[in-house]
Hints:
The chain is mainly α. The chain is built from 4 helices and 2 strands. The chain has a two-stranded antiparallel ribbon with strand order 1-2. Helix 3 crosses helix 4 (116-122). The longest helix has 34 residues, at 41-74. The chain starts with 10 loop residues before the first strand and ends in a 7-residue tail after the last helix. The model has no long low-confidence stretch (mean pLDDT 82).
Amino acid sequence: MSSPPPNHPPFLSIAADTVPVPVPPSLSTPLPHPPPAPLTEQETRKINSLKSKISTLETQITFTQAQIDEKALKLKNPNAAQTVQEHIKLLHTYNEIRDIGQGLLGMIADNRGVRIKDVYGEFGVGEGD
């Protein structure tokens, strides 16, 4: 946008298809900021204390990130989603084998005419297995 002629006030335009609005001269120049007041001793101590805490926390973050990186390197598979899928597959296989084993123990119990619980005990299978 080109600057207005010297004897015209600057214009404020919100969008290209809107009518420009003149900006009053009092708003077109920034107000000077007063210099900041000197810090008190208490404020200086507080700032130094906060800087020290920030430094300590940054050190802790660096240390913790190093520990995370070290542990990640030791993982057999750092891809969590893939690890979960592998565990689900292994659990599915385990459940199939367990169901077959329970079926066989049930057949043995039926063949002998005893309770399944008695056959479990004979084979060393607990109730929670």
